[in-house]
Amino acid sequence: MDQQTSADRTVRGIFIDNQWREASAAIDVVAPAEGEAFTQIAAGTAADVDRAVVAARRALEEGAWSRMTAVERGRLLSKMANVVTDHAEELAQLEARDTGKPIRQARADMVACARYFEYYGAAADKLHGETLPFLNGHFAATERVPHGVTAHIIPWNYPAQMFPRSVGPALAVGNAVVMKPAEDACLTPLRMTELMAEAGFPEGAVNIVTGYGRETGAALAEHPGIDFISFIGSSETGVAIQTAAARNHIGCTLELGGKSAQIVFGDADLDAALPVLINAVVQHAGQTCSAGSRLLVERKAYDEVVGRVAERFSQVRCGTPEMDLDLGPIVNRRQQERVRRFCEQAAADGLPLLAEGQIAPGVPEKGFFVQPKLFGPVPRANRLAQEEVFGPVMSVMPFDDEADAVRLANATPYGLVAGVWSRDGSRAMRVARKMQVGQVFVNCYGAGGGIELPFGGMKKSGHGREKGFEALYEFSALRTMVVRHD
Ligand code: NAD
To answer: 164 near 113, Cβ under 8 Å?
Structure first.
């Protein structure tokens, strides 16, 4: 993305106190399938971030937001579920152009988006403390209170899902939020923020400032007026966020990258597994934190399983959002080059290329398309077995037995998601429970939907949990009260 030298006062991106604000500079928004800019967003400054934080604080301490009950907050969130459903096609078209994903996927994202609002709308008045047995003559209880002003920094891969996933529970609990979406794709969060104001969210409850990570994002993470940070993005940026949080003595949740394993035993129902195994790395061109990018196959069934996976993988088709094929392009030129370098390195390392998908004829030449690739067997210490590609590249690796499968699955710095495929229920259960991950699937795979399911990582995949009821605990603090009455 190129920053424009001349100030553009018409671009959107800064929405504070329910009003669009002028931007002092703009960033081109490039459509990944077209490789060309089609609109602009604001390049927010530290001063813009400060204004947003001040507005949120005001909403929290003296605005209409501060007087709302849990049930009223819940009703507003529930209303947004209907608003998103009513605007689903408009939002899906925006999301598809902004991210490059097939329109079918963008439409599914809007269903998930509405569901986040529905879930947290219904949950808002269900969060409560408890009474505690304590000394005679004393009454003791806990209550859940909002952190205060919460900062939300999200990535570009699923902006329409990440936005309600992050701000939904925070608002349900009563925080006032400042969102910094990703500079590469943020048009649906911008539109939704505007829709939230129209739906009745009071001034200052929901604020958004677009801009570059190292400027706008860093200014938000480091702002002394922030009480909690929710971050979804790369493990590298996660370090900067955690450092900023530490300096201000506040908490944070970090939802970071992954190198997730799908373990296939010889007795797996391969017909059921095949489409799921492949979709796990093909969905949104592998630009999914929970992508199942490592396929671990029991050695005795290796040839059969890999043969069938390769056959199907070679049928995968990549195209524009409107072509609505299996996957779209990579988000930007830099990421496209990064994925290519991984593949070139794999070839230089002599890794056998088992199959590759095809780019559909007729896609724009400037689009950031890459051919999906299946490599294997990949040596366990190879980069392709250890590092997150964030592209449609799958590494196949054989394992000997149950113990070896567990060892291999856990042998990366990451710990986000794992999948186990076996008809032997006891074995699947044993293996699943040894996975060092935040979410594990048996005879299925997919964290994309599942709004009800707490989600998050271990190890380099981060800490804290979002989604599900668990997120309400993350976005609130526990206060204990003791009253002596005798
Ligand atoms: P990124 O870390 O570069 O950017 C994520 C967000 O952080 C963007 O909004 C960006 O502007 C901002 N940012 C960048 N540098 C910053 C800084 N110094 N201070 C504050 N903010 C900063 O990540 P990305 O490349 O946009 O996203 C891809 C990564 O996100 C992958 O590693 C992927 O696995 C991960 N991810 C994780 C989850 C999850 O739930 N675990 C979900 C989606 C993506």
So the answer is: yes
